[in-house]
Automatic annotation (TrEMBL):
Source domain of life: Bacteria
Keyword Transmembrane: no
Keywords: Hydrolase
Protein's recorded name: Alpha/beta fold hydrolase
GO molecular function terms listed in the Swiss-Prot or TrEMBL record: hydrolase activity
Record field: transmembrane: none
Domain Serine aminopeptidase S33: 12-221
Family annotation (Pfam families): Hydrolase_4 (PF12146)
InterPro entries: AB_hydrolase_fold, Carboxylesterase_BioH, Hydrolase_4
Amino acid sequence: MSDGTGPSEWVFIRGLVRESAHWDEFPQTFARAVPGARVRAIDLPGNGRHWRLDSPLSIRGMMEFARAELGTEAGVPRYLLALSLGAMVALEWIARHPQDIAGAVLINTSLSSLSPLHRRLSWRAWPEVVGALLTTDIADRERAILRLTSRFAADDPSRVQARVDAYREHPIRRANVFRQLWAAARYRPPADAPAIPVLLLGSRGDRLVSPECSEAIARYWGLPLNMHPAAGHDLPLDDPAWTIEAVLAWLATLCEGRSAVCPAESRRET
């Protein structure tokens, strides 16, 4: 197992009907802050550059697609950083192919086996979710999604415009929204705890998914959990510096008692 030292590949996986462009500048910021890190932001079937494909009706299908696209040999330790539905894909990858992965950071995710529906998708958010799905105005829809997932970005015209531009290049097929919702609703990971190091990150200000969902996963598997006191569902957007510091601190724990220099000890400016 890797201890987080030296060169590494970090695979970033977004959530429900979101694409790699929605990371904004976070991959570049992360790569500068974590020495040796090479970031690959991927798109799941039905999203981003794969928008023409039908989304699989299972999390396993999404995972196997991503694994085949990336290849099983990274040449360096491979880590996953995944948000929401993307974190379910990461958990499935860890469960099925633990030899591929050195560690994973899972952000604001939930599991149907541990949390009820009203926590996995807050009942207060349902009217806004439905409204966002039904609107035909791209800017209004992306602004509504940002209101649900971020504490501030909906008021930033450049963030909204970036998502409008992404949608025009890679439109979201409505059928894929429901296919991904179906896959997420049905997903149940194995009962055994992940066989590799996993860090959970959550947000107290998440209006979309209750922070209690991350807490439930942490309790069930005995995993470390860091909770941001105020950020929304899209934690890397709302507080990228805090997110990176949490990852660096976790990597440092993987290096305790080892002689190698760890990324957390040789960090660069973020």
